[in-house]
């Protein structure tokens, strides 16, 4: 096994392993690399659906079916991320998966079925590195603040549609997932790294601030996280796999390939309630 770091703080390419046949020793090495590098990349992995699920289960209990993303008929825990002719991708946002639910996931495993010849990369950001570059004064301010995470960004997206009454299905489903209050500064439960725990898609506001002040503060932090020095960019190939630590990263899908066919399968591992933060009902509605 060869592990090649791709940046000073985030991302590594792993060579010389078959993910469907990992020994316990190999998995132990991979898990430590996962914690260190935050996202691991692999090429030429011919995973069946069951092998994909089995690999994810080595990281923990799997998430149930996503509430509105498309999924495989044979197992609804496998999300399908697909672009087809006449159905280009929607607008992309920097995000950390599912921070709007009561317990955000620990990690996700994405397996490329087929991809465009050019374009369609994904970029990951190290939110621990972003935090460490904040000034002491900024860190002190943020330690006492909580972010409000909500489903609002999916309303009107490609995953939304209107019911017979003309109401947004996402807005209705959002009632099942009330806004979540989470500390803006989190500590990774395994590495003990401090990190900035916000993301552009689902962090709607900062508790206790006016709307204007909240949006200005978030915009400054989001802009910092968009700096390339905190990021790693991955070019997909058919059979490529990415495994990322959802607790300490954001990611962004680059939608520069029009409606070229592209299909990836995602399996997600449940998170730790200790890391989740506190749910709130704060009247935050669209």
Name a few traits of the molecule.
single chain; 286 residues; Double-stranded beta-helix; 7 helices; AtsK-like; metal-binding; TauD-like_sf; metal ion binding
Instruction: Report the portion of residues in β strands.
Output: 25-35%
| H-E order | EEHEHEEEHHEHEEEEHEEEEHE
Largest sheet: 7 strands, mixed
Anisotropy-based shape: globular
CATH fold assignment: Double-stranded beta-helix
Number of helical regions: 7
State the end-to-end CA separation: 49 Å
Structure description:
There is one protein chain. This protein is α+β, with helices and mostly antiparallel strands and 286 residues long. The chain has a single domain (2-271), classed as Clavaminate synthase-like (Double-stranded beta-helix). It is built from 7 helices and 16 strands. It has helices at 24-37, 49-57, 127-132, 136-143, 169-173, 211-225, 273-276; strands at 2-5, 12-15, 39-42, 79-83, 107-114, 122-126, 146-149, 180-183, 185-187, 194-196, 203-206, 231-234, 241-245, 249-253, 262-269, 278-279. Strands 1-2-3-13-5-15-4 form a 7-stranded mixed β-sheet. The chain has a 4-stranded antiparallel β-sheet with strand order 11-7-8-16. A 3-stranded antiparallel β-sheet has the order 12-6-14. Strand 1 (2-5) and strand 2 form a beta hairpin. 36% of the residues are buried. Its EC number is 1.14.11.17. This is Taurine dioxygenase. Pfam families: TauD (PF02668). Keywords: Dioxygenase, Iron, Metal-binding, Oxidoreductase. GO terms for molecular function: metal ion binding; taurine dioxygenase activity.
């Amino acid at each position: 096994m060869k592990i090649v770091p791709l940046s000073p703080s985030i991302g590594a390419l792993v060579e010389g392993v078959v993910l469907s046949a990992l020994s316990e020793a190999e998995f132990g090495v991979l898990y430590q690399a996962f914690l260190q590098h935050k996202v691991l990349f692999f090429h030429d992995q011919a995973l069946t659906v069951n092998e994909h699920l089995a690999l994810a289960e080595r990281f923990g209990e799997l998430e149930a079916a996503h509430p509105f993303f498309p999924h495989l008929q044979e197992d609804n825990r496998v999300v399908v991320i697909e672009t087809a002719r006449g159905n280009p991708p929607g607008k992309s946002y920097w995000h950390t998966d599912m921070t709007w639910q009561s317990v955000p996931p620990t990690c996700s495993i994405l397996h490329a079925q087929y991809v465009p010849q050019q374009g369609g990369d994904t970029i990951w950001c190290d939110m621990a590195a972003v935090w460490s570059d904040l000034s002491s004064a900024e860190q002190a301010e943020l330690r006492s603040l909580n972010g409000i995470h909500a489903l609002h960004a999916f309303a009107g997206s490609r995953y939304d549609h209107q019911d017979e009454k003309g109401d947004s299905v996402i807005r209705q489903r959002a009632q099942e997932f009330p806004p979540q209050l989470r500390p803006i500064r989190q500590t990774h439960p395994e590495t003990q790294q401090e990190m900035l725990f916000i993301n552009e898609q689902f962090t709607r506001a900062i508790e206790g601030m006016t709307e204007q002040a909240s949006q200005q503060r978030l915009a400054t932090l989001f802009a910092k996280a968009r700096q390339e020095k905190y990021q790693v960019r991955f070019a997909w190939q058919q059979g490529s796999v990415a495994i990322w630590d959802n607790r300490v990263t954001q990611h962004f899908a680059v939608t520069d390939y029009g409606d070229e066919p592209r299909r990836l399968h995602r399996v997600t591992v449940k998170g730790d309630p200790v890391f989740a933060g506190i749910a709130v009902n704060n009247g935050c509605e669209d």
